[in-house]
Design brief:
16% helix, elongated, alpha+beta, single chain, 38% strand
């Protein structure tokens, strides 16, 4: 799993208990997964279709640095399935896991669109013309 995105937990990210608000974390995950899907499917028109059970394993507090890891697990005809782990950058302690996040490639009318992808591509494999 690749951990590309890091977040520094600030006061506005906390819930009344003084720990990381789950809604903030889920927003960051959805955004990170969407960016990953856009890059992999080479289509900026994607939508979140499904997020499986979300397992909050531990928490984070103000000033913690966390990192979000996303990995593609399956390419469908119009979809991309990923898994996710969020962990503390310093301690490597897991904060959250999600087994499945599914994004669907859509056309300009919002209808599912075949993407033709079958495997992960990496930045080093892409041509920047």
């Amino acid at each position: 799993m690749n951990f590309h995105t890091r977040k520094w937990i600030k006061p506005e990210d906390l819930n009344p208990n003084g720990t990381l608000f789950g809604g903030s974390l889920l927003r960051w995950i959805d955004e990170e997964a969407a960016i990953y899907a856009i890059i992999q499917l080479e289509n900026s028109r994607i939508v979140t279709k499904y997020i499986s059970e979300i397992n909050f394993v531990s928490t984070a507090v103000q000033s913690d640095v966390i990192e979000l890891g996303i990995m593609a697990t399956h390419f469908g005809r119009t979809s991309l399935t990923m898994c996710c782990e969020v962990r503390n950058k310093i301690t490597r302690k897991s904060i959250l896991t999600i087994d499945e996040i599914v994004f669907v490639s859509v056309d300009e009318n919002g209808q599912p669109k075949p993407h033709g992808k079958t495997e992960i591509t990496y930045a080093s494999d892409r041509r920047d013309d």
